[in-house]
């Protein structure tokens, strides 16, 4: 995805997240499901498997992602682009909680910083700064 679109997505995500309270309450009834996921750690195939087995987020399919989206795996950036896009499309059905890997120092140690800089050589620092701002 072109850097301009990534930055635009990050800007819109940040704007949306700033409007939310620090604590999200997700409720369901007997006729609805909420899928809770955690620790994707840059494994895009895991996210695709979750969506394959449970369906894509939609007005009738809610998700809670409990952080640790990035680091370790090679496709953390793609996971965030997908999750942030679904968050903006379905803000009442997609909930993202920050994990300890959504931290600047952890990103340096476990690979997200390097991944962003390799994928976006020219605009990498700006994109990374915006990701940290969203986190």
TrEMBL record:
Required cofactor(s): Mn(2+)
GO BP terms: negative regulation of MAPK cascade
Catalytic reactions on record: O-phospho-L-threonyl-[protein] + H2O = L-threonyl-[protein] + phosphate
Record protein name field: Serine/threonine-protein phosphatase
EC number: 3.1.3.16
A GO molecular function held by the record: protein serine/threonine phosphatase activity
PANTHER family noted in UniProt: SERINE/THREONINE-PROTEIN PHOSPHATASE 5-RELATED (PTHR45668), SERINE_THREONINE-PROTEIN PHOSPHATASE WITH EF-HANDS 2 (PTHR45668:SF2)
SMART domains (alphabetical): PP2Ac
Protein family according to the UniProt entry: Belongs to the PPP phosphatase family.
């Amino acid at each position: 995805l072109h850097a301009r679109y990534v930055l635009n997505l990050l800007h819109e995500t940040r704007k949306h997240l700033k409007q939310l309270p620090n604590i999200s309450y997700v409720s369901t009834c007997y006729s609805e499901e909420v899928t809770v996921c955690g620790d994707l750690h840059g494994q895009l195939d895991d996210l695709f498997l979750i969506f394959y087995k449970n369906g894509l987020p939609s007005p009738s399919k809610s998700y809670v992602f409990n952080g640790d989206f990035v680091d370790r795996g090679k496709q953390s950036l793609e996971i965030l682009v997908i999750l942030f896009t679904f968050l903006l499309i379905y803000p009442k059905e997609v909930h993202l909680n920050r994990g300890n890997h959504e931290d600047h120092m952890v990103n340096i140690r476990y690979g997200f910083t390097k991944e962003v800089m390799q994928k976006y050589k020219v605009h990498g620092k700006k994109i990374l700064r915006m990701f940290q701002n969203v986190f």
